[in-house]
Each structure stands twice: as C-alpha cells, then as structure tokens.
Amino acid sequence: MHGDFLSRVHIGLDYFDASINRMAAWMIGGWNMLRALLLALLEPIDQLRRLELAGDTTGRLALLEETKGLPFGAVWDYYCLRQGVPVGYAFMDAIRDYERRVLAERG
Q: What is the pTM of this model?
C-alpha cells in the first residue's frame, strides 16, 4: 500500500441517502470500502516504486494499466465465500428480504 500508512488510516463512512433504505446504503458502502482496501493492497506498489526510481515512466504506465486487469473480482468473491456472505450481486437478495420483513412493517 502506498507509503505503508495503513496503521495510521482512520476510515469514516457516511451513507445517508433518503432515496434508498439506510440498511442497504450501509451494507453497500461498507462492502465497497472493504473492496477499495483490497484493491489498494493488491496493487504492486514495490514494482511501481522501482520503475519510478529508475525513471521508467513508460514501464510504470504499462504496469498501472496492467493492474486494471488483475483478478480483483475473483479475490473479492473468494473472500466473500470464506466469510460466508453472498457473492456478487446476490447480496441484494438479503436486502430485498430485509425490506420485505422489516421495512414493510414500519411503513
């Protein structure tokens, strides 16, 4: 991760959006924060630094572009499976169930 600052990072999240249910916003926002951290942790920062220090800006650009095709999605899906949570868009089933069971009774 850039600068090895992970131990000094504090993450604050705010999900208020009156147009959708708050539980869905909280869940989607939290998952995407974790995905962003995973993406940062998968970035080949040591190799990028070496290219930068060597003045190889072409190599750095090529590597940055190559990282866009890394199997981030597969790693995330595996993480979700290991955690016992829905993979991919399947989390929407849990949100829809919550809306039917809990939010409908409030309405």
A: 0.67
